[in-house]
UniProtKB/TrEMBL annotation:
InterPro entries membership: cNMP-bd_dom, cNMP-bd_dom_sf, RmlC-like_jellyroll
Protein name, per record: Cyclic nucleotide-binding domain-containing protein
Residue span, Cyclic nucleotide-binding domain: 12-81
Lineage: Bacteria, Bacillati, Actinomycetota, Actinomycetes, Kitasatosporales
């Protein structure tokens, strides 16, 4: 079903005016993923993205000789995939469905074309995706501090 979604996440694209929001949602279609399904692979072409409606998905990182390491769990309202917005349009991480997932799927090329035609929309989408990236970087930093801060990187100061 194309363009059936009514929202773009819980505040994800809140700053987008209603008419532009409607145009963007017109490019979406509802999709579902069964539990355990690989949604995309690290290093593959990033040609679409999703806003989760329900369920949970894990972002993971390829670890040579081991199974992929989960780096973040996404839930309803979250953006799944940002690599589609920046050349060379290749996934930086992989993703899989932890539960059954329902999502709005967007064709990346169509969204980039719409954003190029409408600079106000383009800026709003870029800022929204940038905010997601910033949040994920801070979350990764916190996880790294949780893992390594007790050991420090040298003798105690003070």
């Amino acid at each position: 079903m194309t363009g059936s979604g009514t929202t773009l996440g819980s505040g994800l694209f809140r700053a987008i005016p209603a008419d532009k929001h409607k145009a963007l949602m017109g490019l979406s279609r509802e999709v579902g993923f069964a539990r355990g399904v690989r949604i995309f692979e690290e290093g593959a072409r990033a040609d679409r993205f999703w806003v989760l409606r329900s369920g949970r998905a894990a972002l993971d990182l390829h670890v040579p000789g081991r199974r992929a390491a989960d780096v973040e769990v996404l839930e309803a309202g979250d953006l799944l995939g940002w690599s589609w917005l920046f050349p060379p349009y290749v996934w930086h991480l992989g993703a899989r469905a932890l539960t059954e997932v329902a999502a709005d799927e967007f064709d990346a090329e169509a969204v980039r074309a719409l954003c190029a035609k409408d600079p106000e929309l383009g800026q709003a989408v870029t800022l929204a995706v940038g905010a997601v990236i910033g949040h994920r970087l801070m979350a990764a930093r916190t996880r790294l501090l949780d893992l390594y801060a007790p050991y420090g990187s040298g003798p105690p100061r003070g």
